[in-house]
Amino acid sequence: MSSPRASGPGAGAARPAGDHPSAVRPAAVRPALAGLSLSMLLSALGTGLAPAVLPTLADVFSAPFRSVQWIVLAHLLAVTALVLGAGRLGDLFGRRRLLLAGLSLFTVASMGCAAAPTVGLLIAARAVQGVGTAFMLALTMAFVGETVPREGVGRAMGLLGTMSAVGTALGPSLGGALTAAFGWRAVFLAPVPLGIAALLLVRRHLPADRQAAGTGRARFDTAGTLLLALALTAYALAMTLGGGDGSGRLRAALLCAAALVAGLFVRAQARAASPLVPRTVLRTPGLRAGLATSALVSTVMMTTLVVGPFQLSRALGLGPALTGLLLAVGPLVAAVTGMPAGQLSDRFGAHRTTVLGLAAMAAGALALSVVPTGLGAVGYVAPLAVLTAGYAVFQTANNTAVMADVPPDRRGVVSGALGLARNLGLVTGACVMGAVFALAAATDVATASPAAVATGTRITFAVAAALVLLALAVAAAGRARSAAAGGTGLSSPRGPAGVGTAVRPGPDARRTGS
């Protein structure tokens, strides 16, 4: 996809990746980035606002927790199941068009959530909101390559990471404040003005779609999309099941179903004329490594959300208000670190910055695994700040590396794959790291003694540190294989105008290892 101004002789010729121009007029770059930033902020708020209002909704609708938790799960499942397909649809039928559709769907569904008279309709509206979020997550990052010049891609990724972290940090506190001041419906109405503003900015300032000749409904892999959605839904349900009688058997059955359907998906992709995930993408070592490290790191970050409240409230004896305040430190540090991380990536290369971020994460996790409870809240928050700062640096650099030199006709699906890897890491972390914490505490963590919680925290973060070291090894192996392969391998021999015959790596490509 490119701007209409890109038409004319040579518009479809390949350009060196190091000096590709932005498809957006220089004067429109800032408002275009503002629209993308709002899209990313709304994606984070869509996830972060709802959990804070669940106790109120249980009272208002006189519903058990098993019912109201689906207000969160419906959104999560929709995003996880559809984000990759949303990215592919954007590649085939126009990213701007479908980003506008996603923002519209999200905004209308938010109003539907606020107006819902029953918990069932609220859950349905949240599922629709999740569909809109899937398109927003999949397509927002895909626009960076045609919105800003190459030398500013890292800073743009840092800005989007900052907005995601701001939404994550703001969600719980804003949800609680709005509920207390105006009632639960205000929680779902709050994103509406931001959604309208994002729609106006995206419509006015992002480049128009130019669909390639020959792209049509037959090129979209409907069967593969449905199989992947079923596999991911079964997996996410297995990972988010609560405890209770029969939950272990149900989880095992869901995991078996997910594995079976995933096998059918792989078989269907091998036979598909136009697979959901292009084969050249799957064969790219740097991309595979980037997606794997993203999933591992997201699993680690979920540890802070699973373990943190128990460590602060039970092991350290802090009250609810102070616990909530300290839990916001991590996302706030990530928000502050996002833009500097982008500048580091632009200056020193994405690969070096990725390694720096992972090293900081490993240091923070290792510190949390050995710090004594006698140091109090500072002993927990200081290493947590190092861990989350490292996460912000990693996320910005890894996203930059993965998206570097991706041809325009595949940016949507690759961006969607990044979103999928992150979501899979989060849902896996909620289950796996929660289980590690419970086993390490050797008792029910809800009634565990402070000493047992502290022991569980140290062991869980030791496992988290091991996962970060594994991510470092995966990143190094991917870098070596990518260098041996001579680049990304993502060049497209045929595609839309603007793709040309190949995308040649620019001066920074060797540094990024993408």
Structure write-up:
With 514 residues, this protein is mainly α. Helix content is 74%, strand content 0%. It has helices at 29-48, 54-60, 65-68, 70-93, 95-115, 119-140, 144-147, 153-182, 185-189, 191-205, 222-240, 247-271, 279-282, 285-315, 320-327, 329-348, 350-370, 376-403, 411-441, 450-485, 509-512. Helix 4 (70-93) packs antiparallel against helix 5, helix 14 (285-315) packs antiparallel against helix 18 (376-403) and helix 14 packs antiparallel against helix 20 (450-485). It is globular. 53% of the residues are buried. Residues 1-21, 213-218 and 491-514 have low confidence and may be disordered.
Q: What is this structure, in a nutshell?
A:
With 514 residues, this protein is mainly α.
Helices and strands, in order, run as HHHHHHHHHHHHHHHHHHHHH
Largest sheet geometry: none
What is the percent of helical residues? Answer: over 70%
Taking the alpha carbons of the first and last residues, their distance comes to 21 Å
- Please state roughly what percent of the residues sit in beta strands, choosing from under 5%, 5-15%, 15-25%, 25-35%, 35-45% or over 45%: under 5%
What structural category do the secondary elements indicate?
Answer: mainly alpha
- Number of helical segments with 4 or more residues: 21
- Quaternary structure classification: single chain
Which spans have pLDDT < 50 for at least 5 consecutive residues? 1-21, 213-218, 491-514
| Total strands | 0
Provide mean pLDDT, rounded: 81
**What is Rg?**
22 Å
Overall 3D shape: globular
